[in-house]
Every structure is written in structure tokens, then in C-alpha cells.
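Entry 14. Ran structure prediction on the chain below.
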Amino acid sequence: MSEGKKLTPESIGKQSGLDDEITDEDVKQIEESYFKQQVNRGVEAMTHGRVLTHAMLKKGIEKWRKSVGRPRRRTT
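Output, C-alpha cells:
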């Protein structure tokens, strides 16, 4: 996908050749199903202890920034 183009349900339909066959209701159901799937994955991850605290995340980002030579962001 080229930079600057927004991925929309309509563009997905056109790219897949479904623009005449897919309805707005179909897109809504797909989006809702995907959202529920992601929530369920998050709940499962939490149940199995696969989570990061805010401090762990910040430490990981700082480590990554150093590894790619990016300076620490200033906070106000």
C-alpha cells in the first residue's frame, strides 16, 4: 500500500474484488468479529501472565531506542 492512502473497508473490498458483493453490514460484522477476537486474545494473554507493566514497556522502548540510535524523547 502506498504511503498516504488510508486502508478502509471499501478499499479492502475493491482490492479483493468484492466491492459489488460485500455490504456495509458485512463489513460491520467483520469489524465486530475482529474486535471481539482481539479482546479475547488480550484476556487469554492476561490469564496466562503474558502481560507487561507500564514500567516494563517503558524500559523496553528505551532499550530499543538506544539500539537504533534514537535519542530519548523529552517529556514535559
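DSSP finds three helices and no strands in the chain. Will compare against last week's run tomorrow.
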